[in-house]
């Protein structure tokens, strides 16, 4: 288990609403319960030596949901950090966030930025929240920034390569995910890390995110460890 551990795991945490519905609970109860899964899986990832854990918490498309639900989802980061930040710090976890900060309510942004700044020097697991994140808008921003560099004469067109593109994405210095997990039985990417997932191993489960346990997580990692990554070779 501790050999060939994925360096970077990305997770599309899906199925909170259906988990709640199945129990006759409001969708918010599913999101609240999903928050506990975040804690469990963060600790499980840290324990096996994963270096980066990226969690899709809110997409640029999730603003379409009813206001009540969006408001609740925007409260979750502060709720989570209020409860868990101290323990994350004790465990040397570094909190990061990727996504468009400009549309986040001030209270959400404040909690996240506080966690980011308090943990910036930690050297353990990087816990990267994709919050108001959308891969297409991330790529467009990168393309615009590169175009500007060319226009201003700071780059030549033939200097545009994959590493320059990497550098301009929100994942910056992070390696691409080795393993992508999606819960809840949906088999799609939903605008998540389209560039970075080019050669990631994909693992899907029908389990809803609130019901996702350390055992499921270990199952995904063990399956990853059995896979042969060819990158187009033989
Ligand atoms: C994932 O659960 C959480 C977010 C997308 C914010 P959902 O809320 O999408 O749950 P389902 O897919 O409706 O069950
Ligand atoms: C993807 O889940 C976004 C997050 C997990 C934050 P969705 O529930 O929004 O995805 P779709 O709408 O089913 O594709
Ligand atoms: Mg969903």
What number of structural domains do the residues give? Answer: 1
Low-confidence runs (pLDDT<50, min 5 residues)?
Answer: none
Q: Provide the list of bound ligands, each named once.
A: 3-methylbut-3-enyl trihydrogen diphosphate, magnesium ion
Instruction: Please state how the strands of the largest beta sheet are arranged side by side.
Output: 3-4-2-1-5-6
User: What is the CATH superfamily?
Assistant: Decaprenyl diphosphate synthase-like
The total count of helices amounts to 7
What is the element string, with H for helices and E for strands?
A: EHHEHEHEHHEEH
Distance between the termini: 25 Å
The CATH class is Alpha Beta
> How does CATH name the architecture?
3-Layer(aba) Sandwich
Q: Using DSSP, what is the number of strands?
A: 6
Hey, roughly how much beta strand do the residues contain?
Answer: 5-15%
Biggest sheet overview: 6 strands, parallel
């Amino acid at each position: 288990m501790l050999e060939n551990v994925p360096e970077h795991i990305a997770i599309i945490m899906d199925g909170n609403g259906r988990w709640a519905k199945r129990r006759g609970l409001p969708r918010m109860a599913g999101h609240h319960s999903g928050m506990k899964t975040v804690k469990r899986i963060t600790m499980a990832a840290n324990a096996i030596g994963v270096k980066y854990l990226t969690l899709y918490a809110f997409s640029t498309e999730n603003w379409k949901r009813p206001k009540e639900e969006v408001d609740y989802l925007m409260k979750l980061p502060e709720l989570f950090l209020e409860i868990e930040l101290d323990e994350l710090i004790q465990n040397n976890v570094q909190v990061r966030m990727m996504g468009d900060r400009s549309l986040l309510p001030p209270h959400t942004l404040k909690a996240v930025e506080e966690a980011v700044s308090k943990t910036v020097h930690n050297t353990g697991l990087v816990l990267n929240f994709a919050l108001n994140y959308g891969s297409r808008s991330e790529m467009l921003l990168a393309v615009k920034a590169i175009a500007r560099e060319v226009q201003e004469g700071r780059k030549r067109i033939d200097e545009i390569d994959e590493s320059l593109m990497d550098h301009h994405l929100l994942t910056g210095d992070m390696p691409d995910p080795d393993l992508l997990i999606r819960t809840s039985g949906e088999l799609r990417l939903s605008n998540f890390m389209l560039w970075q997932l080019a050669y990631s191993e994909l693992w899907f489960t029908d389990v809803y995110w609130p019901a996702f346990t350390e055992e499921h997580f270990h199952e995904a990692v063990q399956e990853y460890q059995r896979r042969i990554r060819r990158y187009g070779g033989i």
